[in-house]
Design goal:
Blueprint: H1 11-20, E1 26-27, E2 31-32, H2 40-46, E3 62-67, H3 71-83, E4 89-93, H4 98-102, H5 113-126, E5 133-138, H6 147-156, E6 161-165, H7 180-188, E7 193-196, H8 202-212, E8 216-218, H9 221-225, H10 229-238, H11 247-259, H12 266-283, H13 285-294, H14 300-316
Parallel strand pairs: 1-3, 2-3, 3-4, 4-5, 5-6, 6-7, 7-8
Helix pairs in contact: 3-5, 5-6, 7-8, 8-10, 11-14, 12-13
The chain binds flavin mononucleotide.
Length: 317
Amino acid sequence: MLAPMEGVTDYHMRALLTSVGGYDRCVTEFLRVTDHLYPDRVFHRCCPELCEGGKTRAGTPVFVQLLGSDAGALAENAAKAVDMGALGIDLNFGCPAKTVNRHGGGSSLLRTPARVGEIVAAVRKAVPGTIPVTAKIRLGFDNPDPVLSIAEQVVGAEASELCIHARTRNDGYRPPAHWHLIEQVRARLHIPVIVNGEIWSPDNAQQALSDSACSDMMLGRGALSVPDLACQVRANAQGLRHENLGWPQIVRLLDQLLATAVDLPVIYAGNRTKQWLTYLRRGYPAAADLFTRIKRMRTVTDMAQVLALEKARLESA
Ligand SMILES: Cc1cc2nc3c(=O)[nH]c(=O)nc-3n(C[C@H](O)[C@H](O)[C@H](O)COP(=O)(O)O)c2cc1C
């Protein structure tokens, strides 16, 4: 699965990465629910795929992710998302952002496992049984001790699946991810458990599956650094040959992303490309050089010119 990443895996990025392939599902960036029912346009902005059968252009199902602490409002909004065509609802209990946590949402709920259970149960009850309701948690807030009781609440509330980001809220995004701590949870639960966190390569993927005893994984920043990581992981697991994407193909993907920028504010569109390059630097040294060349640019047109030059250079090389 492709992880939800706010400000990064928007509609266009989901379309791009799932077209590269290897993903069975993706999840929208979180939609923060307070105490009211959102109008249609908010769901369409968060998940334009709702107008396209709930799937990306490549045919990959997209679940709508909700974040909040008001079980009733979450249930109502989940039911609406499903009425509008969402193929599944994912509940975010992992967001470490201070503003979100101050309002009792995201990972702050991990301190009160029973509330996690109440929210999952309310959402489960509000949407038809055929629609999956999944939860995404971390190991805990400031320590991993409560992970099993949180997971039991999620299962007791009849969630379909549980994804565990193998770090606590206080760990932030610092390595390592403690994949082995998921194993004890998985052994006690009868629903699929998905391992997430710090999977950057096929070797990491293999180790994460082995340490956690899970059979499914969710890829986050690794998917941005290596856009065909999911294909590499699958090929590796099946002992198949896979031609990894080279830098020229990555430049074409960057160009495609930039081309989607026409409907976005200039600053946002340009920043998205810069942001992706910062992730790509990890997998492709040439991305560092390209980032240096565009980092001070303000317009999409200037960036497109640099990309065109890079393409020409690669073609003549
Ligand atoms: C920029 C960014 C935005 C994120 N936004 C979300 C989000 O909207 N919902 C969510 O559940 N997790 C979010 N996450 C967490 C990721 O889904 C994932 O759990 C985390 O990055 C760990 O996986 P990784 O080590 O493979 O990146 C975000 C992470 C990053 C880096």
